[in-house]
Backbone:
């Protein structure tokens, strides 16, 4: 059976409108409603880097002076990456479509230093929690990530529906 693109409810084959929300079904929707909106990002668009940073704690800043701060955090329009390692590289990635939630943690000392830890919760089997440790302007980075996740899910027509 088909599902409504507006609310996700199942409707009978051949129905003109969804029984739950009243939206026109895909077969009955106007052509303009089936086409993606002009200028809207689609799932096949080029990947764009939105933010990149390194840990910024006191010890990390000292490592940066002698080029030993080898951890890099990157947020793109499609995924999140954490690259670590001096000689060998370890890269951990999460697709934005798999991100469920995120949280920010700042101790008093971290607030004075202007840094914090961003925790990303996802459906990814290899890394359900990904940490961006000791990053500057953590609230701004969280907002960039939130917008990127929302844009990617909208572009791929993914919505959530809670059943009570």
Residues:
């Amino acid at each position: 059976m088909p599902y409504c693109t507006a609310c996700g409810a199942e409707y009978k084959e051949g129905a003109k409108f969804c029984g739950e929300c009243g939206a026109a079904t895909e077969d009955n929707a106007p052509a303009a409603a089936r086409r993606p909106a002009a200028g809207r990002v689609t799932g096949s668009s080029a990947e764009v880097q939105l933010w990149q940073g390194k840990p910024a704690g006191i010890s990390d800043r000292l490592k940066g002076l002698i080029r030993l701060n080898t951890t890099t955090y990157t947020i793109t329009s499609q995924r999140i990456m954490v690259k670590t390692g001096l000689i060998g590289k370890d890269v951990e990635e999460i697709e934005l479509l798999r991100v469920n939630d995120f949280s920010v943690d700042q101790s008093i000392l971290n607030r004075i230093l202007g840094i914090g830890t961003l925790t990303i919760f996802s459906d990814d089997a290899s890394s359900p929690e990904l940490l961006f440790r000791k990053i500057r302007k953590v609230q701004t980075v969280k907002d960039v990530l939130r917008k990127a996740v929302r844009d990617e899910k909208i572009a791929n027509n993914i919505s959530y529906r809670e059943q009570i």
In short: The chain has four helices and seven strands.
